[in-house]
Design a protein that fits this description.
With 83 residues, the protein is α+β, with helices and mostly antiparallel strands. It has two domains: 34 residues; 43 residues, no CATH class. Helix content is 63%, strand content 17%. The chain has four helices and two strands, in the order ααββαα. The chain has a two-stranded antiparallel ribbon. β1 and β2 form a beta hairpin. The radius of gyration is 26 Å and the shape is rod-shaped.
Length: 83
């Protein structure tokens, strides 16, 4: 309670407290973003060629994506299945 009285004792003390809290909060947010990994694996098949782009992904993510991409039929095979 004494702390709150001190913070609200003056406009400038209150403003300084708000600035410190916002700076500390933004630092925590940036730390969480840095720790959280955005995983992205992109597979593009053009005929017989396969291009894979990996960004911040684990080996397991890459393997799962490669298996999923191999299971997708070629465009011609897919069109034949639709007819």
């Amino acid at each position: 309670m004494e702390f709150l009285r001190f913070v609200f004792s003056s406009f400038w003390v209150w403003l300084g407290f708000i600035i410190l809290v916002s700076v500390a909060g933004s630092g925590v947010i940036e730390l969480v973003r840095a720790c959280r990994r955005d995983r992205k694996v992109t597979v593009v098949r053009m005929g017989t060629q396969v291009q894979m782009t990996v960004e911040n992904a684990t080996k397991e993510d890459v393997q799962n994506t490669a298996v999923s991409a191999a299971a997708v039929p070629e465009r011609e095979e897919w069109e034949n299945e639709q007819q």
